[in-house]
From TrEMBL, chain A:
Signal peptide segment: none
Species the sequence originates in: Streptomyces albidoflavus
CDD domains: ABC_NikE_OppD_transporters (cd03257)
Any one Gene Ontology cellular component term annotated for this protein: plasma membrane
This protein's name: ABC transporter ATP-binding protein
Subcellular location: Cell membrane
Automatic annotation (TrEMBL), chain B:
Family statement drawn from the similarity comment of this UniProt entry: Belongs to the binding-protein-dependent transport system permease family.
Name the UniProt record assigns to this protein: ABC transporter permease
Organism: Streptomyces albidoflavus
Gene Ontology cellular component list: plasma membrane
Signal peptide (residue range): 1-28
Pfam family, one: BPD_transp_1
PROSITE patterns: ABC_TM1, PROKAR_LIPOPROTEIN
Length: 623, 276
């Protein structure tokens, strides 16, 4: 997919100098500041950026589907040379689905829950879909077409009669793809199509999109915050930051010789599947919010190479020195020429921590941070029983970081919830930091109180893991009093400040409500809340999965450092094997409720023994 | 994605108007009879008369001043309705929180109970109870509390169930906090927006229901100043003094609409509380 298609004279989609602003508050706040890009027929273009960069807005503007209160304040969007801004809304709507189509992120909400999948695809077929005769003959023809469309995305005919809730996330994303393509669009815009999927499906959906693009010769725009997805599926990549394009060029070049410090920093923050780095160089700070962006480079405040002119000179895309002309490799960095190859990330690899070798004697149950034997859990429902955990054995030693890897539905979250006392096992032994939990019932309040100082959990979704009505200080103070008894106010405040400092947040954050924090900051507060209980085991349930790569790097480094200084053990649940490599001492792979492989992390990743582990490794995206 | 809200300046004006209306009505309810000691003076010789300079809204069949009766009647209409709304809120929240948070058997029992109450035709039950208990204001209020609460129970229960498995609730549980603490200190404040809005809606509904009961003669005794009662008593005067019947009807509508609008606005304000 690295070969790029030639761009014809009139590109399929041409966005030029696009400006968007939020106009609701009276004074327009610029959100997008002069974004230009082109997509040719049969070409795949990735737009990559952290949350808040404006990548989704760019594509919504192209589709003519901007949310209320956001307006186009400049620039043009042309489809095949036609300026879409001049079309009346009705004509513009007619283009959607047939000339250009949008594929959205969430496979769980994107489809109509009450219509069969076949019906949703049929609805998108061209109005003039050639069907001979009427009535039954027409219905049969539509049906045949729907089956053909399903086959195109790798699903069989039976799916046509099913409702979305009967399908897995990966299958829904395929149905949604078929529905988006039903009108045979020339251009498909996929907005984070893989973000909600696990690793194996992620790869499959990207491969599918690439295949469809090649077969249909359509243009594909992939909007994503996932660098690996962008670099593996895009011919050309645009790096968007704070509403401006900082760098653009062929994927292979951007990946190996980035021309902008921001691209370089993003690449450096990305953990690798094959090497463990001494440290993931995390970007300091966060994306400047709309309205607080100056005239110069928006990245200047976080850039290690900032010089005086950077803050005042408006961005101008210039060719990266020494780059081939076609397709062009452009950077908005003033200092690209003098920095040159100095931008390439330098990272020191380290060997795995010694810790544990295969065949080390098992610690006694009460000596381990977590000791599970024969853990079994079945979820019963009218639709049928689902065995979430099947006789699972697992040990986490004190102070050890164990990664629990598996696709969605493998039972890893159920295991975590049982260990945290939020769910009960049907049978089996579960000893957490010396506290035995009884199978068959949820722990009582007294048991939970004892458990609190043994195990704490950090959840995936940073937006709902903090009580939205309480400021950070109140949340942390409550965690302190719940686990250590009532403290005098001054002492509690000092302790809150210490906890915030541990997660590298300023003490002033104690007065902030969660709404005033970014996703990464919220996850840090969630970690601080867990640390307030001084647990022996910290469970992280996909705690970095929803974060941007630079924020993910910060949190991964933080967890490693805190483990070293505080000595707690970590059970880290993830579907990302690169994170396993970067963080874990030991890796446990689960598949359909069973532990299929476990051992020192390096051994499991370098010499996998179980076919499923190999499948997960194969599914891992590499640029 | 940046979410931007449309300006709601006209909404603000409306909210202020509603609040003013309700404040005036509350004042009337509290101090009405004290400010107008002669509100129940009769003038049988005058009888029902059209509005004039002395009687702004005219008089009823007993020659009582309608305007003064309306001010005096605010108390029984509004206080009763407020009691109904508050009572239903307390009952509904306690049971809804229990059912939603604990789930299982408690939930099954509470939920069926609410279903049962909802299935009963409200007015019929009130008529039967009033028939057996002999009617009266307190009885009407009590029956309305019980009949209004299932709506609150269901609402709170479903709102609580939505929150129950959110990470912040589970995090509070793993800190070893008691169930009562988690339910009351963490979950309840987050369902409060719907509770408050619904209570105001119940208030509005109760104004109408109580007036209806008084209209049917099941609430306040005849002759007492109450908007529903006035509407019932004076509907025969439509030709002699239309405002004697229309003014109380209008007041009932105005109070109900103002309460509804304010409830909506409060709901929005509370929902925004969690955002920046």
């Amino acid at each position: 997919m690295a070969v790029s298609a030639p761009v014809p004279a009139t590109p399929l989609l041409a966005v030029e100098g696009l400006r968007l602003a939020a106009t609701a508050s009276g004074t327009p706040v610029p959100l997008l500041d002069g974004v230009s890009l082109t997509v040719g027929r049969g070409e795949s273009v990735a737009i990559v950026g952290e949350s808040g960069s404006g990548k989704s807005l760019t594509m919504r503007a192209a589709m003519g589907l901007l949310p209320d209160g956001v307006e186009v304040t400049g620039g043009t969007v042309r489809l095949d040379g036609t300026d879409l801004g001049t079309l009346p809304p009705r004509e513009r709507a007619a283009l959607r689905g047939h000339r250009m189509s949008l594929l959205l992120q969430d496979p769980f909400t994107m489809l109509h829950p009450q219509l069969t999948c076949g019906r949703q695809i049929a609805d998108g077929l061209r109005p003039g879909f050639a069907a001979p005769g009427g009535g039954r003959a027409r219905r049969a023809a539509v049906r045949a077409e729907v089956v053909r469309r399903l086959a195109e995305v790798g699903l069989d005919a039976a799916v046509a009669d099913r409702h979305p809730h009967e399908l897995s996330g990966g299958m829904r994303q395929r149905v949604a793809t078929a529905a988006a393509l039903a009108g045979d669009p020339d251009l498909l815009i996929a907005d984070e199509p893989t973000t909600a999927l696990d690793a194996a499906n992620r790869r499959a959906v990207l491969d599918l999109l690439g295949e469809l693009r090649a077969r249909r010769g359509m243009g594909l725009v992939l909007v994503t915050h996932d660098l690996r997805a962008a670099f593996s599926a895009g011919d050309r990549v645009h790096v968007l930051y704070a509403g401006q394009i900082l760098e653009q060029g062929p994927a292979t070049r951007l990946h190996t010789v980035p021309g902008h410090p921001y691209t370089a920093a993003l690449l450096a923050a990305e953990p690798s599947l094959t090497e463990r780095y001494a440290e993931l160089p995390a970007l300091p700070g966060s994306v400047p919010p709309p309205g607080s962006r100056g005239s110069g480079c928006p990245f200047a405040d976080r850039c290690p190479h900032t010089a005086g002119l950077c803050r005042t000179t408006p961005l101008l895309a210039t060719p990266v020195p020494g780059a081939p002309q076609d397709p062009p490799h452009l950077t908005a960095c003033l200092r690209a020429a003098e920095l040159g190859p100095g931008l390439a990330p330098v990272r020191r690899t380290v060997v795995e921590r010694g810790g544990e070798e295969e065949g080390d004697p098992e610690p006694a149950p009460e000596q381990a941070a977590l000791h599970l034997r024969g853990l079994h859990r079945v979820f019963r429902s009218p639709a049928g029983d689902h065995t979430a955990l099947h006789e699972v054995d697992l040990t986490v030693r004190r102070g050890q970081i164990v990664a629990l890897a598996g696709e969605s539905g493998s039972g890893k979250t159920t295991l975590a919830r049982i260990a945290a006392g939020l769910e009960s096992a049907d049978r089996g032994t579960c000893v957490v930091g010396g506290v035995p939990l009884t199978a068959g019932r949820r722990p009582t309040t007294a048991e939970r109180r004892r458990l609190a100082s043994r195990v704490q959990i950090v959840f995936q979704d940073p937006y709902s893991s903090l009580n939205p009505l309480r400021d950070v200080g109140a949340t942390l103070r409550e965690a302190l009093t719940a686990t250590r008894g009532r403290l005098p106010r001054a002492e509690a405040d000092a302790e809150v400040a210490r906890l915030l400092d541990q997660v590298r947040l300023p003490a002033s954050y104690a007065r902030r409500r969660p709404a005033a924090l970014s996703g990464g900051e919220r996850q840090r507060v969630a970690v601080a809340r867990a640390l307030a209980a001084r647990p022996e085991l910290l469970i992280c349930d996909e705690a970095v999965a929803a974060l941007d790569v630079s924020v993910q790097a910060q949190l991964l480094s933080l967890l490693g450092q805190l483990r070293d200084s505080e000595g707690f053990a970590v059970l880290f649940i993830t579907h990302d094997l690169a994170v396993v490599r970067q963080l874990a001492d030991r890796a446990v792979v689960m598949h359909r409720g069973r532990v299929v492989e476990q051992g020192p992390a390096a051994r499991v990743l370098d010499r996998p023994e179980h076919p499923w582990t190999r499948r997960m490794l194969d599914g891992h995206l590499t640029p | 994605m940046t979410r931007v809200r449309r300006s709601r300046r006209p909404g603000r004006l409306l909210t202020a108007a509603c609040a003013t209306v309700l404040a005036l009505l509350a004042l009337a309810a509290c101090f009405g009879t004290a400010l107008l000691p002669g509100w129940d003076r009769q003038d049988l010789a005058l009888g029902a008369a059209m509005p004039d300079a002395t009687h702004w809204l005219g008089t009823d069949a007993l020659g009582r001043d309608i305007a003064q009766l309306l001010v005096a009647g605010a108390r029984s209409t509004l206080a009763g309705a407020a009691l109904v709304a508050l009572g239903a809120m307390v009952l509904g929240n306690a049971l809804g929180l229990l059912a939603g948070y604990l789930g299982g058997r408690v939930d099954a029992v509470v939920h069926r109970l609410a279903d049962l109450l909802l299935a009963l035709p409200a007015l019929l039950v009130t008529l039967v109870v009033a028939g057996i208990g002999g009617g009266g204001y307190a009885l009407a209020v009590g029956v309305l509390v019980v009949l209004t609460s299932p709506g609150d129970i269901r609402l709170v229960r479903s709102a609580v169930r939505e929150q129950r498995h959110l990470p912040y609730v589970e995090a509070a549980e793993t800190l070893g906090l008691s169930r009562a603490t988690v339910a009351v200190r963490h979950i309840w404040p987050n369902v409060l927006p719907v509770v408050v809005a619904n209570t105001l809606l119940n208030f509005a509904g109760a104004v109408v229901s109580l007036s209806a009961l008084s209209f049917l003669g099941l609430g306040v005794p005849p002759g007492a100043p109450d908007w529903g009662r006035l509407l019932a008593d004076n509907r025969t005067l439509l030709y002699d003094n239309p405002s004697a019947a229309l003014a109380p009807a209008l007041l009932i509508v105005v109070a109900a609409v103002a309460l509804n609008l304010l409830g909506d606005r409060l709901h929005e304000a509370f929902t925004d509380r969690g955002r920046s």
